[in-house]
Amino acid sequence: MNKRIEQIGLPWYREFWPWFIITLIGSVVIASLYTVSLAFKYKDDLVVDDYYKVGLAINQRAEHRDRAEDLGISAEFAITSSHLRVRMTGLTPSQQPHLHLSHPLDADKDISATLLPGPDNWLFIPLNRPIEPSWYWSISHSEPEEWLISGRFNDAAFANDRD
Length: 163
Description:
Elements: H1 16-41, H2 51-71, E1 74-79, E2 83-89, E3 98-102, E4 111-114, E5 116-117, E6 122-126, E7 136-141, E8 147-152, H3 155-159
Antiparallel strand pairs: 1-2, 2-6, 3-4, 3-7, 5-6, 7-8
């Protein structure tokens, strides 16, 4: 009755494969936790919570664009490193439109300002940081009639460097 049981091989904790599998599972858990922390730290500002209000705003913006088209309002840009100039057609002299420059990825880089009158019927704003052709722009005015024009900068606007 005193038989000794011979052990075949090493105990499991001294084998390579269990530790390899545990390491794989552990690395997946750590990578998942890191991904979740990144998702909470750098939230996407492009996703909107209230789609109904956004839908209503889109309809209103379409009406404002139509009104700008009816009034014959258009814009021509000249961009330098220090300022942005806009020549607008269809404006009355008393109107000072509002310009919003939107970075395509980072909302913290957006610029919003009222266009100031300048020489030769140009409106302008000083720039604190350079902008690139990938940026979006919108120009609006609220009184006496609301209108809106918008678009994306093209390379031609940057060719007019007259500093």
